[in-house]
Amino acid sequence: MKQTLVRRHQFQTLRRLLLNIPLMVVILIPLLYTLSISVMQPDEIYTNRLIPSSVSFENYVRALTGSYYNFPRMILNSFIVSTSVMLGQMVTCSLAAFAFSFLEFKGKRVLFLAVLATMMVPGEVTIIANYLTMLRWGWLDSYRALTFPFLTSAMGIFLLRQYYLTFAKELYEAAKLDGCSNIRFMGSIVVPLSRPALGALGAYVFLNTWNQYMWPLLVTNSRHYRTVQVGISMLYDIDAYSLGLMMAGVIIVIVPSLSIFVFMNKQLIHGLMAGAVKG
Amino acid sequence: MRAMQRKGDAPKVWKGFPGAVEPYLFLVPSFIIFGLFLFYPFFRTIYLSAFLTNKTGQPKIFVLFTDMDNYLALFRDPSFWKSVGVTFQFVFLVAFGGLLVGLTTSLLTEKKFPGSDAATAVYAMPIAIASAAASMAFKMILHPTNGLINNVLGTQINFTGDVRYALASVVGVTIWLTSGINFIFISAGLRNVPAELYDSASVDGAGYWRKVWNVTIPTISPTLFFQIIINIIGAFQSFSQIKLLTEGGPSNTTNVMVWSIYRDAFFNFRFGSAAARSVILFLIVLGITIIQFRFEKKGVNY
Question: How distant, in Å, are the alpha carbons of A77, A188, A221, A256 from that of A227?
């Protein structure tokens, strides 16, 4: 009896493995294949091999040193923009979330509803008007255009507010009685205590900004302000040997995204779940 | 008791100038950004949709309710309806395809087994990958002469350029992109199914598929419904895949609404018409959100 149970368990484990492995391969193939092509010699790609005969980093060197498109500059641009947006949202969203959870004021409900209402408008709906604003202000091709529109988010305010609401109200009242100002209370108590929520917001916002494509495509024309996601699509058009170059570019661009996924997995998923609570 | 008194007294205390204004100061940074880049462009889009514009997007001729009305022009244009049709096809396939992949991967990792942590990580991984980067990877996979699929099949199919395959290709890429979020949410839903439900089903002699069909799916139906809505709203916003793989073609078979907005504005410089398309897209997404609210109140449950 016991033996059959053990055997049944082993059979189930085997079955799970046999069902999972092919599916895992399917999900991983785009990355594995990209990696494989990216380390091939340029002419090997056109022999339709799946696995490179030897590992070559020529495509990476060419992607990073090619003078025509300046890929390192694009990587730097993406880092500058993603970091600025991340830090900006941490500040603006903390401030707004603090007001919405600790302070009492006229119109609080209406203003909070206004914040939530912004979640109902997909970015693609306002993108034309935003582009025209940038055109009118002469902001095209600048870091301002890439960062300013994203310096706050309803998702960030919502995520932090949910976290602040778990704090005991007495904590705030006690601090007030001791003559602690709001901003000091925020700086010395709320922000240090809300590190997990800030981490979730930071990981999610950095990744999202790093991964942006449509907006950077619209507001940048010169090579100086292009971001990586726009950059990799440009690697494709360079010459007949650009397939390997493009794949090396994809891998370079994916490394920071995957690093956040691996090292900040919990925070990222927390942020993602808060972000998906749309409408 | 004392604490309660304090609470009751607090609002009556006159806070003076800084006290009364201070809360709003905390909101100023966020509301400046919302105002300039969300509220203003939202109303500006509605406003622009009533005009014919010049090449820099300045409204020039008010045409609402005239013969040249942007909306009327769209409704009279068969290619607009084709674009709406393509969008709905695309959205439907992505929403249910993504759900199916998410449900499969979640069920396969529901119980622990050696390697289940790796499987969980792999299934969630697409959430981190940019749609542009993934599109370029798939561009290589689908490449007509040197791509993986054609290599393996020994064919030379132009997946992104053939009217028979183009839509399926971008749908496939989008399902891959959304599979991670589907996996994460549906897995979370599965963890909330009470074990007693399975136990009593087992006692009744139900097999695996019966349990999935009669216990799991009904119990997580609110999660599945919510996930379909997320998929639908996400699919309506797809752009990178279309831009990088098909550019709306061939013969407009992948000309989804966001792409048509982009084309109208940046190829034809018809910002009024692009704005009208944006308003229509907004109304569709709003309608879906309202449906979600309605159902959520009623509760999609067994």
Answer: 6, 36, 11, 14
